[in-house]
Design goal:
3 helices
Length: 72
């Protein structure tokens, strides 16, 4: 009887168990993951701004005020 069970059957059973017993905690988990991703994105932006200050200031300068690149 158990010889016909494969890995996919085990994964399906685990998913059902998580859904049944962990359904009340899933929204809190999703909220926590969302907040963590938001924090990670802001930290990456801040780090990028620290490492490349010239790129950040050039992005804020209007095109009409930027120096034209030298022509060869």
């Amino acid at each position: 009887m158990l010889a016909n069970l494969t890995g996919w059957h085990g994964i399906a059973v685990l998913a059902i168990i998580v859904l049944i017993f962990g359904a009340s905690k899933l929204p809190a988990l999703a909220k926590s993951v969302g907040q963590s991703m938001r924090i990670l994105k802001t930290e990456v932006r801040e780090l990028d701004a620290e490492l490349t200050p010239e790129a950040g200031s050039a992005a804020l300068t209007p095109r009409s005020q930027r120096a034209a690149p030298p022509r060869p």
